[in-house]
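Q: Can someone sanity-check these two? First one:
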Amino acid sequence: MRSSEGREIFREFLRSEYSEENLLFWLACEELKKETDPTAIDEKARIIYEDYVSILSPKEVSLDSRVREGINLSLAEPSNMMYEEAQLQIYTLMHRDSYPRFLNSSVYRDLLDSKRSSCLDT
């Protein structure tokens, strides 16, 4: 998650598995955490809700009912940390489920091969 290049390749993999929304949600939460302006926090928190938490969203992430209820309550007074527990849940899902599959994927193996090849060429 630290490398923008690595995130982009992981995102491509998630897109192929129809689970790109998990990474997009995680990244949106990271951006919200950096926000300090109350008006911007309110706007970004609502956008994240509409894009990833609402049951009407085509990009809805899988959250348990307790976390979802906490988010619903937090919408009355949004904060830049209101999605922290949900973000951890999605991160854990990616870490335990998607990421191991990514490490065994042809996308990742091709990346490693190209890195090895470029190291040998220098």
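And here is the second, same format, sequence then tokens:
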Amino acid sequence: SVREKAQEKVFSDLGRVKHLKARGALIGVGGCVASQEGAAIVERAPYVDLVFGPQTLHRLPQMIAARHSQRRAQVDVSFPEIEKFDHLPPARTEGASAFVSVMEGCSKYCSYCVVPYTRGDEVSRPFDDLLVEIAGLAGQGVKEVTLLGQNVNAYRGRMGGTDEVADLALLIEYMHEIPGIERIRFTTSHPNEFTPRLVRAYADCPKLVSHLHLPVQHGCDRILMAMKRGYTALQYKSLVRRLRAARPALALSSDFIVGFPGETEADHAATMKLVEELDYDASFSFVYSPRPGTPAAALADDTPQATKLARLRQLQAALEANVRRLSAARVGSVQRVLVEGPSRKDPAELMGRTECNRIVNFAAGPQAAGLTGRMIELRITAALPHSLRGELVAATAGAATCASG
């Protein structure tokens, strides 16, 4: 929802499936673009039958029935708040990892982003509902749960029938006591929503993994202000210092936008300096592209595209160098890995994920059949550009850390 061209891709895809109408198929458009464009989709592509937003997916059966009975396109891109959560299917999983949506929407209104306009303001699921769902997943053999939300650490869920509200830190503390849950992750977070209690969770809750995705977007205060991020580079760095004081082995990834309107070489240099200082692990970076209807789309932008792409290449090279160095530093260490299944590169091998979110491929031999879904220890033997290689070791006392040394 931050990047451009999503709308045109939707209409391009619609053109490719238009012929299916002749077979009696219904054509629908759902998600953020649908929410942003609404009825304009039907105006531009009259063969579309259904348009629904992220918060109205649960209404799709009724919309299909209405399309048949009324013989006209149905558009519903409203924001019915908590109603969507009332229609979630029972949690089911076939693996040892599961994803649980704890909240939806965003109330931050960054100047470049359409999410608040397409997904609505922040709405949190009730605290008790989440605990019941997560306990049920643990009963199915799930060992790792990832909590999801546009700004997941803005979670504020009602507790039972009271007026009390639980934040993400309290949810993690309660999850920590659920038998069978061995790892807790969450994404994506906003720097302004990190409470002291949530920072302290990295010291007090060992099941909370040593990996955090914490989008910064830029290293220059002037650009951060224009983006309406609500913090300075110094405040962001201070938060990272507190997090790493609580969990020294914390691996940090982030998001970066290059070429925001008005960005100068000095502004870009501030981002490069931030990357050098904070030792980021794998991160995501993009050239800014305006989204219609956002405040940033009206800003003057006179930076040549070639300059933006050159800055992006420089940033990505620095981030990639960090990844390679951190990977190489883990060679020889013992890492606790959750085995996810056959390796994507070689089905004869297995792959798992470290606490710090690195993929490790390894040869399991005759033990392979019984390892999927288990926590095991691997000695890292080699570092590849975006993965590690390891070998099985005998069980050792305690969990391995993600320390790079």
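A (reply): Looked at the second one. Residues 85-329 form a domain with the pyruvate-formate lyase- activating enzyme fold (CATH 3.80.30.20). The two ends are 38 Å apart (CA to CA).
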